[in-house]
Amino acid sequence: xxxxxxxxxxxxxxxxxxxxxxxxxxxxxxxxxxxxxxxxxxxxxxxxxxxxxxxxxxxxxxxxxxxxxxxxxxxxxxxxxxxxxxxxxxxxxxxxxxxxxxxxxxxxxxxxxxxxxxxxxxxxxxxxxxxxxxxxxxxxxxxxxxxxxxxxxxxxxxxxxxxxxxxxxxxxxxxxxxxxxxxxxxxxxxxxxxxxxxxxxxxxxxxxxxxxxxxxxxxxxxxxxxxxxxxxxxxxxxxxxxxxxxxxxxxxxxxxxxxxxxxxxxxxxxxxxxxxxxxxxxxxxxxxxxxxxxxxxxxxxxxxxxxxxxxxxxxxxxxxxxxxxxxxxxxxxxxxxxxxxxxxxxxxxxxxxxxxxxxxxxxxxxxxxxxxxxxxxxxxxxxxxxxxxxxxxxxxxxxxxxxxxxxxxxxx
Length: 412
Ligand code: NAD
Hints:
Blueprint: H1 4-18, H2 23-28, E1 34-43, E2 49-60, E3 66-67, E4 70-73, H3 78-94, E5 100-107, H4 115-129, E6 137-138, H5 147-161, H6 185-200, E7 209-213, H7 217-228, E8 232-238, E9 241-244, H8 251-261, E10 271-273, H9 275-278, E11 285-288, E12 307-309, H10 318-327, E13 330-332, H11 334-337, H12 340-354, H13 360-384, H14 390-409
Parallel strand pairs: 3-5, 3-6, 4-5, 7-8, 7-11, 11-12, 12-13
Antiparallel strand pairs: 1-2, 2-5, 8-9, 9-10
């Protein structure tokens, strides 16, 4: 499988070349500014013992404090965290958020840990980070972490510092200073950009068909909104496999089925489909909303959709990107499409720092305005640079902001 950090660096360098970004800026961005790498020993509740590798990457802080993302999964690698740190850097720029990009993670299988083990693991993660607060580094959630993990992280931070500081941790529950709309924000943002791109292509959602990979926080929220907008979702998959129905899948009923069984497979009225066959199905729109590098040189030529909207980070490899561009498939890149979570994290921080909390209508309206502006900016930059796609347009626009900030700071 393609190395996701190499994929991110390929995109970075391609955009840097087309956008004529200062070579010194490009040199700085070839690697993270700072990497913390440590190991967390844990006495497990079942009497066992394990040492978990863990990382925190500050990719670039030219535009502000490093923020977001803590991933916990069994095969996690440092390269994956570096790639995600770079994506966060670009994503914050694209969404006009004055923040740097960071990502952290623990190589562990949440399914093998008890709740008690998980709590002690994430608390130890915070202690190992020696966190410096909201103006230096703000961890948030990612795959394998959710509101509960972030509540434990916030509590650990506050126990260490002896202060209350909701802005020190993102993606926490609303009752502890989190934002309303946070959980659905990324899926909602994917939907808003998908709708805008479909309109630009003259594709009516009510007459279109879609395939969604991943039915977790992002995929299920996106699928729900897409279904409500009248699109026919003809296949959905998760890590265990997929289901299909050319007449369309009832997403509300599928959510209930997943809540009861833990997987999409076996949903009544559907036929099985594998993740390997998913992207070759007949449909207008594909939303990969699971993991990276799932559309690659081995399956890109099979894609029949006209539009791909990247809910996941880095789902399309460099070679696949080229194959799809040659086929005329439009792609709304991850750094725009899934920036809704980062945007609402920014709202969460603003609310925490000011101690003023907003209603859901305000959060959603501001999210829509901001993510549409990011999408339009990317499209405009792409148009202004011959031969560039929406992905390259987004990266050029972001790199120009980073270049300016580095020049003003006197780094280059
Ligand atoms: P999640 O853990 O809630 O859900 C992940 C889903 O993907 C699950 O349905 C899982 O079964 C499925 N999946 C996992 N591995 C798979 C595989 N190999 N093949 C097919 N399906 C697989 O995660 P999430 O929060 O929904 O995140 C999904 C993606 O979106 C990730 O790439 C994440 O980095 C990205 N993302 C998430 C957010 C957010 O706010 N949650 C923000 C930006 C980007």
